[in-house]
Amino acid sequence: MRITRYYKTDRGQRLGASRHALKASREPVHVTTGDVVRVMRGDDKGKEGKVIRVYHKTGRITVEGINIVKKHRRARTAEEQSAIVEMAAPIAASNVMLIDPQSGKPTRVRARTDKDGTKERIAVKSGQSIARNR
């Protein structure tokens, strides 16, 4: 007769908790939607554009007019026609710098907490406050 063994599993953790933590993790991104940024590295180096979308899971951003790729779009209805559409693809957020509101040059960003507890972004070059455009 075979003796069945019961192995102890890690019952303290919820099943799949480690996988959930990996999927729920976010990359810190220094820009938000609506910011004007300049591309510092890559094919579009030197170009400026507005941030359309921020992907927090991957640490990438989509900038208007930057990293334009061609996408083959299939017709979804009988009246619609298939086409090759140009669209902005995401780039790494580390390859862009925020534009200083005072001088118009790229700058690093520092965070400062006011006396009332609100957090604001400060341009390192000029010390000016950068408004959040949401």
Give an overview of the whole structure.
- This protein is mainly beta and 134 residues long.
- It has a single domain (27-130), classed as SH3 type barrels (Roll), CATH 2.30.30.
- The chain contains one helix and eleven strands, in the order αβββββββββββ.
- The strands form three sheets. Strands 6-3-2-1-7-8 form a six-stranded antiparallel β-sheet, with no helix packed on it. The protein has a three-stranded antiparallel β-sheet with strand order 9-10-11, with no helix packed on it.
- A hairpin with a 4-residue loop joins strand 2 (48-55) and strand 3 (60-63).
- The radius of gyration is 23 Å and the shape is flat.
- It starts with 16 loop residues before the first helix and ends with a strand.
- The model has no long low-confidence stretch (mean pLDDT 87).
What layout of secondary structure does this protein have?
Elements: H1 17-24, E1 36-39, E2 48-55, E3 60-63, E4 68-73, E5 83-88, E6 91-92, E7 96-99, E8 106-107, E9 109-113, E10 119-123, E11 129-130
Antiparallel strand pairs: 1-2, 1-7, 2-3, 3-6, 4-5, 7-8, 9-10, 10-11
Q: Can you count the helices? A: 1
**What proportion of the residues form beta strands (DSSP E)?**
35-45%
H and E string? HEEEEEEEEEEE
| Helix coverage percent | under 10%
| Mean pLDDT over the residues | 87
CATH class term: Mainly Beta
Q: Strand order across the biggest sheet? A: 6-3-2-1-7-8
- Please tell me what the overall shape is: flat
Distance between the termini: 69 Å
**What does the radius of gyration come to?**
23 Å
Largest sheet: 6 strands, antiparallel
Tell me what the CATH architecture is: Roll
How many domains comprise the coordinates?
1
CATH topology: SH3 type barrels
Poorly predicted residue ranges? none
Structural class: mainly beta
DSSP summary, beta strand count = 11
